[in-house]
Amino acid sequence: MNILLATQKPFAAAAVKGITDILEAAGHKVAKLEKYAEQSDLVAAVADAEALIIRSDKVTEEVMAAAPKLKIVVRAGAGFDNVDLAAATARGIVVMNTPGQNSNAVAELALCLMIFMARTQLTPATGSELLGKRLGVQAYGNVGRLVGQKAKALGMEICALDPFLTDEQIIAGGAQPVHSVEELYAASDYLSIHIPALPSTIKSIGYDLVTRMPKGATLVNTARKEVIDEEGLMKALEERTDLKYVTDVMPDNYAAMQEKFGMRVFATPKKMGAQTAEANVNAGLAAARQIVDFFATGNRKFQVNK
Ligand code: 3PG
Question: Is residue 304 part of a domain?
Fold first, then answer.
């Protein structure tokens, strides 16, 4: 089969080699499209592809229409909001993700961003410590749980909200369960967001929730920019000069935020939560193995458009 590895943000070399080795050993042909500049480059590259491995690359209806032989798309990572699932399903294309494979990298970055803000972005100004502070985790899945557990080891108190878990499961994962998003924000000196971008979550975090946070609180977003109502967040940051926002997903209005809020906001220039050699290898090789297995046995375990 023809497999295209299409990554605007390329994987580490070790991951690319591992992916290629796995696919070629199973008799597949591998083509690569890395660091491409335009979406039209992706559209032009998929004509012969029977399988795609992607990261946050956008697999739209237009991409699928240009790929008549495409049978499977594997998003090497967790979130699959970059793939048009309805269009894939309509065309009989299987879409999978590789859940859990890059979670540790994202969790470590969430901790890194908290410390970075607590220590005034590594300037000499007096900072604060995480010890004894309350961390709220919004969604206690693969990443959220790791953030909670690592933060606990730093002496933070952890509370978590997750509508898909029982109280017992949250407690077993090391956190105190809370039962509403309002309660979670009101309790959190640090609030780490780990919800996916869905119609029900898009723009769900704004003025009302952010202004419930305690004095001096920091909102940490290593999830998706779409879940933030940026207008509401900016209004909250304007009124509450004690609050901070740190994110790994570039806000649409970052220039305006920086101008208004200075050191109280920080965004990484490019989403880097999953950008470790380890996460690239874990997610990339899992994607390659899932494709091999899919063509060899029909295994659809990680299919997300069922
Ligand atoms: C994910 O959903 O797995 C993360 O957001 C990582 O995305 P990336 O592979 O584009 O860095």
Answer: no
**What distance in Å separates the CA atoms of residue 108 and residue 244, rounded to the nearest whole number?**
19
% residues pLDDT > 70 (the chain): 100
Whether residues 262 and 222 fall in one domain: yes
pLDDT band at 262 (very low <50, low <70, confident <90, very high): very high
Q: Is the pTM of this model over 0.85?
A: yes
Task: Kindly list the protein residues whose Cβ atom lies closer than 6 A to any atom of ligand 1.
Answer: 9, 55-56, 77-79, 102, 271, 273-275
Range of the domain at 49: 2-101+275-297
- Contact, 187 vs 159, CB < 8 A? yes
Q: Which of 34, 102, 270 to mutate to test the pocket of ligand 1 (most atoms within 8 A of CB)?
A: 102
CB burial string 109-128: b at 16+ within 10 A, e below: bbbbbbebbbbebeeeeeee
**Number of the ligand 1 atom closest to the C-alpha atom of 55:** 9
